[in-house]
């Protein structure tokens, strides 16, 4: 049955909602798809629910196609299983906790590994019953610190979560690959421009893990990609191998002493000039103050006379203004040596340029370099020589961690790819899906074992796989909208055709009504703007705002026996004879 605008539970808004940041979110509210009930909690109105159901159908079809069996767990869950895996604690403030009338602790499920594991434990006991893949499309609760952008980060949201159960590692790998292929089909059908990136397995534990990120400037994740090799990873998961170590001869030849600031201390400009003179960059670019200020490597003298370089982090803030910094890094401002952080080096450093010198909110951190090698890109400041003069030796500038790797968060455009490939590019993305090889972590915690071929009890190995179903609605809206409104791909649109009847003439409404019936008979779903007293201008604006892919205007042209068919996305219009209209629409 066509959705008639005269009766549809819909009210479009001309004004943007005050609490919405992103254009897609504003439009979903303005076009009457969703309504905010509380921060991060949304009501699905009829049109929104149609889109959501379409996403669900795509996800369901692809999960069924890999043999997933659908079931549905409650959202209201007991504490004990989450206690057993320590997630009652680990989830911290993100968990919605509550008590029943008897004072028994409960939670609203943020994800369901525990419940699936226990269900399989209760019902299955033999390797013959595996492999098994179960899934649900269900409401999740997470008390997100910053629920933003509406459906993109809800506190109540809909996720497809599936779980695979296998007796051995090869089985898990196969289940993971099946899911990966299903996800490719899902995100292709949803029409995303997406990348599959290596992901940090984070709190979930386990080994292999990948994310499907929709490429989008409004994404909260940053990923790196190497065009040449196809390598792609979430920056959280990137570990760049250590750059070639500095020649030990350089280290040995560096005079060591305490770091002291003196009136002769070089200015930032001197450091930059020295760096450019002594150590031209491989990429031809000139060093700038921001580079030299990234790190200082201080040559330490141990009480026994041995020398060791120590890295001191300078502001992580790359935009730091050299002048401002220089002004602040006066000897008086040097923060006192922090005994706690430098416990291993008592008496060795007189001061460091720390948060105090740079303001409390400075992201400046102290980093140790316990290995005397310095990652390429590090500024290298040695202490005063025996004449009391500072000797500055700049070796290329970059942050590094104690284990000698470049920190994930420090990856920059142009860095080498960990797989040996050419330069990395950085971009932002929205996490749409996440697949994990969990391994035996949950099965062990909850004691999920089955008998193997030899009658021996073995712990089951698991995978867990999520798709952000409600997030997908928002991400598609974000990716496809234009200045006029939402602009759905056909696969997700709440209807195939939006028929607009204009004018006051009853003949127009009669023709439009017949056309709607024809379109429906042809299997198309229709929104029919049959409102008698609304101006054509308002109707056109609403049709554009709602974003159904094909708009058909029945009105002025009828005198010549034509109607107009307009493509919402391209704006292309054409007139076609009314009797051929149904056939011409798609
Ligand atoms: P994020 O990094 O965005 O917080 P996550 O890594 O915490 O997501 P997972 O635990 O991997 O999320 O959950 C699986 C999927 O559920 C995610 O890939 C994402 O698409 C979706 N999802 C997670 N949190 C939310 C949320 N608050 N609102 C909507 N969808 C979400
Ligand atoms: Mg999260
Ligand atoms: Mg994530
Ligand atoms: Mg994730």
TrEMBL record:
<dbReference type="Pfam" id="PF00587">
    <property type="entry name" value="tRNA-synt_2b"/>
</dbReference>
<dbReference type="InterPro" id="IPR023717">
    <property type="entry name" value="Pro-tRNA-Synthase_IIa_type1"/>
</dbReference>
<dbReference type="InterPro" id="IPR033730">
    <property type="entry name" value="ProRS_core_prok"/>
</dbReference>
<feature type="domain" description="Aminoacyl-transfer RNA synthetases class-II family profile">
    <location>
        <begin position="35"/>
        <end position="489"/>
    </location>
</feature>
<keyword id="KW-0648">Protein biosynthesis</keyword>
<dbReference type="GO" id="GO:0005524">
    <property type="term" value="F:ATP binding"/>
</dbReference>
<keyword id="KW-0436">Ligase</keyword>
<dbReference type="InterPro" id="IPR002314">
    <property type="entry name" value="aa-tRNA-synt_IIb"/>
</dbReference>
<dbReference type="GO" id="GO:0004827">
    <property type="term" value="F:proline-tRNA ligase activity"/>
</dbReference>
<dbReference type="InterPro" id="IPR007214">
    <property type="entry name" value="YbaK/aa-tRNA-synth-assoc-dom"/>
</dbReference>
<comment type="function">
    <text>Catalyzes the attachment of proline to tRNA(Pro) in a two-step reaction: proline is first activated by ATP to form Pro-AMP and then transferred to the acceptor end of tRNA(Pro). As ProRS can inadvertently accommodate and process non-cognate amino acids such as alanine and cysteine, to avoid such errors it has two additional distinct editing activities against alanine. One activity is designated as 'pretransfer' editing and involves the tRNA(Pro)-independent hydrolysis of activated Ala-AMP.</text>
</comment>
<dbReference type="InterPro" id="IPR045864">
    <property type="entry name" value="aa-tRNA-synth_II/BPL/LPL"/>
</dbReference>
<protein>
    <recommendedName>
        <fullName>Proline--tRNA ligase</fullName>
        <ecNumber>6.1.1.15</ecNumber>
    </recommendedName>
</protein>
<dbReference type="InterPro" id="IPR036621">
    <property type="entry name" value="Anticodon-bd_dom_sf"/>
</dbReference>
<dbReference type="InterPro" id="IPR002316">
    <property type="entry name" value="Pro-tRNA-ligase_IIa"/>
</dbReference>
<comment type="subunit">
    <text>Homodimer.</text>
</comment>
<dbReference type="Pfam" id="PF03129">
    <property type="entry name" value="HGTP_anticodon"/>
</dbReference>
<keyword id="KW-0963">Cytoplasm</keyword>
<keyword id="KW-0067">ATP-binding</keyword>
<keyword id="KW-0030">Aminoacyl-tRNA synthetase</keyword>
<dbReference type="GO" id="GO:0006433">
    <property type="term" value="P:prolyl-tRNA aminoacylation"/>
</dbReference>
<dbReference type="GO" id="GO:0002161">
    <property type="term" value="F:aminoacyl-tRNA deacylase activity"/>
</dbReference>
<dbReference type="InterPro" id="IPR044140">
    <property type="entry name" value="ProRS_anticodon_short"/>
</dbReference>
<dbReference type="InterPro" id="IPR004154">
    <property type="entry name" value="Anticodon-bd"/>
</dbReference>
<dbReference type="GO" id="GO:0005829">
    <property type="term" value="C:cytosol"/>
</dbReference>
<dbReference type="InterPro" id="IPR036754">
    <property type="entry name" value="YbaK/aa-tRNA-synt-asso_dom_sf"/>
</dbReference>
<dbReference type="InterPro" id="IPR006195">
    <property type="entry name" value="aa-tRNA-synth_II"/>
</dbReference>
<dbReference type="InterPro" id="IPR004500">
    <property type="entry name" value="Pro-tRNA-synth_IIa_bac-type"/>
</dbReference>
<dbReference type="Pfam" id="PF04073">
    <property type="entry name" value="tRNA_edit"/>
</dbReference>
<comment type="similarity">
    <text>Belongs to the class-II aminoacyl-tRNA synthetase family. ProS type 1 subfamily.</text>
</comment>
<dbReference type="InterPro" id="IPR050062">
    <property type="entry name" value="Pro-tRNA_synthetase"/>
</dbReference>
<keyword id="KW-0547">Nucleotide-binding</keyword>
């Amino acid at each position: 049955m066509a959705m008639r605008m005269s009766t549809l539970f819909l009210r479009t808004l001309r004004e943007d909602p005050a609490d919405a940041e992103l254009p897609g979110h504003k439009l979903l509210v303005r076009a009457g798809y969703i309504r905010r009930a509380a921060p991060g909690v949304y009501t699905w109105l009829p049109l929104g629910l149609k889109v959501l159901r379409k996403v669900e159908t795509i996800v369901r079809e692809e999960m069924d196609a890999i043999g997933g069996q659908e079931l549905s767990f409650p959202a209201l869950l007991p504490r004990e299983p989450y206690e057993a895996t320590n997630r009652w604690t680990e989830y911290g403030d993100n968990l919605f906790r509550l008590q029943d009338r008897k004072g028994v602790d409960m939670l609203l499920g943020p994800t369901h590994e525990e419940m699936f594991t226990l269900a399989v434990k209760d019902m299955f006991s033999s390797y013959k019953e595996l492999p098994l893949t179960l899934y649900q499309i269900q409401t999740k609760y997470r008390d997100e610190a910053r629920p933003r952008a509406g459906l993109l980060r809800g506190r109540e949201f809909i996720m497809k979560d599936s779980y695979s159960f296998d007796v051995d590692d090869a089985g898990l790998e196969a289940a993971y690959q099946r899911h990966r292929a299903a996800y490719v089909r899902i995100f292709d059908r949803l029409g995303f421009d997406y990348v599959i990136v290596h992901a940090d397995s984070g709190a979930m534990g386990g080994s292999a893990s990948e994310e499907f990120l929709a490429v989008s400037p409004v994404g909260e994740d940053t990923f790196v990609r190497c065009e040449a090799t196809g390598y792609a990873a979430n920056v959280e998961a990137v570990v760049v191998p250590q750059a070639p170590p500095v020649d030990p001869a350089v280290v040995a030849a560096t005079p060591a002493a305490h770091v002291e600031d003196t009136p002769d201390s070089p200015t930032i400009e001197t450091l930059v000039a020295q760096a450019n003179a002594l150590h031209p960059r491989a990429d031809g670019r000139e060093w700038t103050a921001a580079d030299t200020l990234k790190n200082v490597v201080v040559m330490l003298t141990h009480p026994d006379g041995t020398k060791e370089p120590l890295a001191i982090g300078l502001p992580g803030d790359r935009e730091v203004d050299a002048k401002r910094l220089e002004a602040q890094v006066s000897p008086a401002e040097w923060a006192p040596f922090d005994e706690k952080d430098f416990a291993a080096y008592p008496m060795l450093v007189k001061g460091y340029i720390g948060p105090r010198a740079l303001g409390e909110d400075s992201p400046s951190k102290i980093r140790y370099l316990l290995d005397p090698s310095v990652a390429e890109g590090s500024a290298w400041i040695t202490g005063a020589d025996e004449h009391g003069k500072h000797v500055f030796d700049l070796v290329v500038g970059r942050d590094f961690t104690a284990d000698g790797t470049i920190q994930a968060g420090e990856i920059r455009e142009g860095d080498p790819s960990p797989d040996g490939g050419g330069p990395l590019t950085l971009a932002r993305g929205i996490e749409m899906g996440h697949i994990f090889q969990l391994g035996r972590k949950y099965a062990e915690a909850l004691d999920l074992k089955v008998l193997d071929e030899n009658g021996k009890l073995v712990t089951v190995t698991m995978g867990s796989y999520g798709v952000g179903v409600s997030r997908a609605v928002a991400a598609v809206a974000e990716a496809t909208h234009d200045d006029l409104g939402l602009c759905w791909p056909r696969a997700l649109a709440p209807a195939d055709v939006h028929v607009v009847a204009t004018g006051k003439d009853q003949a127009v409404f009669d023709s439009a009504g017949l056309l709607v019936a024809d379109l429906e008979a042809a299997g198309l779903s229709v929104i029919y703007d049959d409102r008698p007293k609304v101006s054509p201008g308002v109707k056109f604006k609403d049709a554009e705002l709602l974003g159904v892919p094909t708009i058909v205007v029945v009105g002025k042209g009828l005198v010549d026996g034509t109607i107009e068919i307009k493509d919402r996305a391209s704006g292309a219009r054409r007139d076609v004879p009314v009797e051929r209209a149904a056939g011409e629409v798609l």
